[in-house]
Design a protein that fits this description.
The chain has 257 residues and is α/β, with parallel strands linked by helices. The chain has two domains: 4-165, Alpha-Beta Complex (Spore Coat Polysaccharide Biosynthesis Protein SpsA, Chain A); 170-249, no CATH class. It contains seven helices and 13 strands. The chain has a seven-stranded mixed sheet with strand order 3-2-1-4-9-6-12, sandwiched between helices. It is globular, with a radius of gyration of 20 Å.
């Protein structure tokens, strides 16, 4: 039986997937779940593993739980296609799994945004729980902000960075923030029984407070122009969630001629 199973969920990730899978070739098993890519993602995945599955996108946490169920190993290392495991972290993971002290492990994540390493604004150390016992862990939370919950166990930290080669272009970043806003608006609509519609003050407050949180209080300004762009984008997503929720609750009315 495989000891460490790496799971990757993806959709149209031919630009990222090869480097991701190359960084985990040392694992006992690699499981890739594709949601219906129209590019070369699946072909690349099959170069590294015969455990390639198709599953139409059900949501972030649902897809990751599906990938976990397809894995045979007792230990799961859950990866995104734009992440990389450096050699020193790989060695530490194998060492820890050989004599585990915990049921799950967090890593600091070194994020790169538009080609720049981000050290502030909440981007670092950005600890993520990615290595865990399959019998203890499950993805929960509100999409797209899923996370691993360890049931009846404990969590440790491996102090070696996981690499995250995030948004490579501004247009990709803007589209992703719009996607997050749409998902957030849908979740907000489910959460609220009454269709209360936020007013203009909440739109402004949501935008400015989010911007101040990341750019000023979390020192995103020290990351130069990428820190400014990232802070504006996060604020845009926050405001966009409310705008799209209002649009769902009360569609805009077009005046007649």
């Amino acid at each position: 039986m495989a000891k460490i199973s790496v799971t990757v969920v993806c959709l149209n990730e031919e630009g990222n997937l090869r480097a991701c899978l190359e960084s985990v070739r040392w694992a006992d098993e690699i499981v890739v779940v594709d949601a219906g890519s129209a590019d070369g993602t699946v072909a690349i995945a099959k170069e590294y593993t015969d455990k390639v599955f198709h599953n139409p996108w059900p949501g972030h946490k649902e897809q990751k739980n599906f990938a976990m169920e397809m894995a045979r190993g007792p230990w799961i290392l859950s990866m995104d296609a734009d992440e990389r495991v450096p050699a020193d972290l790989a060695a530490r993971i194998r060492e820890e799994v050989a004599a585990p002290r915990h049921d799950g492990y967090r890593f600091p994540r070194r994020n790169y945004f538009l080609g720049h390493r981000m050290r502030h604004g909440g981007w670092y150390p950005d600890h993520v729980l990615r290595l865990f016992l399959k019998e203890k862990g499950r993805f929960v939370g509100i999409n797209p902000h899923d996370y691993v919950e360890i049931r009846g166990g404990n969590v440790g930290i491996l102090p070696i960075d996981l690499l995250h080669i995030t948004y490579r272009s501004y247009s990709q970043y803007v589209m992703k923030q719009l996607s997050y806003s749409q998902i957030g608006a849908a979740q907000l609509a489910k959460k609220r029984n009454a269709p209360g519609i936020p007013g203009g003050f909440r739109f402004l407050a949501g935008f400015f407070f989010k911007f101040l949180e990341t750019y000023v209080w979390k020192l995103g300004l020290l990351d130069g122009w990428p820190g400014f762009v990232a802070s504006i984008g996060g604020a845009y997503a926050k405001m966009g969630r409310l705008v799209l929720y209002r649009e769902r609750a009360d569609p805009w009315k077009v005046p007649g001629p």
